[in-house]
Design a protein that fits this description.
CheY-like_superfamily, DNA-binding, Rossmann fold, Arc Repressor Mutant, subunit A, 2 domains, 4-stranded antiparallel beta sheet, 219 residues, phosphoprotein, alpha/beta
Length: 219
């Protein structure tokens, strides 16, 4: 899953990026409003962590522009302001959740997980499809009672597919969700990871839709 973080505090920006990458997400970083708005359009993030106090173009303006352009990714607003008026303005602009600074990183990660689940129509932190269970809290996967040993990229790829169970995802879409914005991408590596996952998962769990991509059956 791909997360965009827009924050003007350089230290907090790095901390957020490290925490989200450690949780298994591909992360894009922006410290200015214009850059954040551009990445929100071009990088196709699955969710956004957005600071209101961005320089050049504030977070509320960025968020309003996204929504006016029809972009529907879930957005978690960060701000040092704690008044109820700021929360109302953020929600009215199209935010899905709100977190005031200072905050615990564990709470932010939990809120991001919840946003991703809700946007995918999932209510429980453990996504279950057949015998396969993906725990979004611990970043672990099991088949029945048997835990699977997955690399970080295998976990990320399986997480994307299971969050979008029932949908066909192309190699390009999977590649975009697997790698950061400035990372070198090769959609052919998706086939390599799919092959590895298939050897570890039940037969037929990941299906190929000829000419379109890959799909996991809806739970």
């Amino acid at each position: 899953m791909r997360i965009l973080v827009a924050e003007d505090d350089p230290r907090l920006l790095i901390q957020l990026g490290d925490a989200l990458q450690g949780a298994g997400y591909a992360v894009d970083l922006a410290d200015k409003g214009v850059d954040a708005e551009h990445l929100g359009r071009e990088a196709a993030p699955d969710a956004v962590v957005l600071d209101l106090g961005l320089p050049g173009r504030d977070g509320l303006s960025v968020l309003r522009n996204w929504r006016e352009q029809g972009l529907q990714m879930p957005v978690l607003i960060l701000t040092a302001r704690g008044s109820w008026q700021d929360k109302v303005h953020g929600i009215d602009a199209g935010a899905d959740d709100y977190l005031a600074k200072p905050f615990q990183m564990e709470e932010l990660l939990a809120r991001v997980r919840a946003l991703l689940r809700r946007s995918a129509g999932q209510a429980h932190p453990v996504i279950t499809v057949g015998a396969v269970q993906l725990d979004t809290r611990s970043c672990t996967v099991s088949v029945g009672d048997r835990p699977l040993d997955l690399t970080s990229h295998e976990y990320r790829l399986l997480s994307v597919l299971m969050h979008h169970a029932g949908s066909v995802l192309s190699r390009t879409e999977l590649s975009e969700r697997l790698y950061e914005q400035d990372a070198e991408r090769d959609s052919n590596t998706i086939d390599v990871f799919i092959g590895r996952l298939r050897r570890k998962l039940p037969e037929g769990f990941i299906t190929t839709v000829r000419g379109l991509g890959f799909r996991i059956a809806a739970p």
